[in-house]
Structure formats: structure tokens, C-alpha cells
Amino acid sequence: MSAYAAMTKATYLAYVRDRTSVFFTFAFPLLFLVVFGLIFHGQSVNGGLAYINYIAPGVLAWGIGNAALFGVAFTLMHWRRDDLLRLIWRTPTPLPSVLASRYAVALGTGIVQALLFTAVALLPVFGLHVSSSWPLALPVLLLGVTAFTAIGLVVGGLANTPEAVAAIANCVMVPMAFLSGAFYPIDLMPGWLQTFSRVLPLRWFDDGLTDALGGRGGLGGPALACLALAVFAALFGLLAAKSFRWSNRS
User: Which residue in 70, 110, 168, 190 has a CA-CA distance of 20 to 30 Å to 11?
Assistant: First the structure.
């Protein structure tokens, strides 16, 4: 078994054994779907798009980004705090294999989240209608997980305690969720705030999934979202490389 396969298996087992974390990772976005889906059932947003076709991709983008960021940040902080990274550093296992193993778990979690969330949103009580352009959501999802994993690496590289991870990650994700239109139509915000939201990765993740799944726009929207998310992934990947530490002692 290769070092990457062994690390991925160990990371996956550690993840699924934390059943409380796994449960709320999948339940939290579904809770928002139930709340918003029932409150605004049968209503539409500007442009005639059904509200559920707008809010479901937005909540899904937030849920996947939230899980990737928090999961990777906590894992990196724990690995470093418990000196696991320093032990790995003394082995032939290269750093990219270590990080790629956690990325694989984040990507797998995002895919399962998307499948489960979409299946529930398709129930008649919510009434999501998936557009024929849904395959365009796959590269958006891939790059969205990549971008938020990179942000998680930055947060995990800066924080030394679980409390610090939670504080930093919440400061990143909570304002971004509201400023990106994940929970309500972005048109309700002032024009300058809509423009500002373009600097937030969740805005592009949300837009890309809404265009692909909700049937808003054509190929251009998801393609532009993929480009923006790739830029965010590269930018935060560079920041993560700068902030990475093998141990809290260094």
C-alpha cells in the first residue's frame, strides 16, 4: 500500500469514527433546507426562478464549503498539536501525500453531501427541479471543495487550539454565507454590497451551482465560477504553503 493510500485510509477511518461530527456535517445543511424550503415553498425570486431552485444550490454550496473548511482546519491543527506531523516528517512520506489524503476525504464528503442534499430537495414537499445542465455542477463542486480546503489549510496553519480554529473559521464562514446570497436572493442587497461579494469564494460557488442545478443561465455562468474558484484555490494554496508548520514548537 502506498503512503498516500495508507494516509487516506487512516484519515477516512478517523473521520467516520467521529459520528457526532459526521452526523451534523450532513444534517446541518438539511436543516436549513427544511426551514427555508417550507417557509418559501411555491414562491419565486426575481427572474421567475423558483425559490427552491435558488436556495437549495446556495445552501448546498455553503454546507460543502463549511464542511471542507472546518474539517481540514481542525484536522491540520490536531495533527500538529499532537505532533503527528513531526512524526510523519521523519518518515519518507512526502507532505503532498499527507495533504492529498485529507483533500480526498473532503472531496468524498462533498460528493456525498451533494447527493444526499439533492435527493431530499427533490422530494415533492420541497419541489426542486434539477436542470438538464446539472453535469456542469461537477467541476464547480470539485473546484469549490478545492478552494475551501485551501482556506481550511490556512486556518489550520494559523490556529493552535480547537477554540482558535472555531473562532477563525466562523469569522470567515458566517459573514460570507450572508454576503454571498446563500440563504436569500442576492438582489435584496445594495448594489455596492453585491459587487463586493464578488471577492468571496462562496459567491462564485453559490452562483456556479445555482446556474448548473437551478437552470439559471447557460454554460458561461458555471465556466466563470470554475475560473474564479480555481484562482481562489491557487491564492489560498499559496497562503497555506506560507503558513504551514510541522509543529507548534517551531
Answer: 168
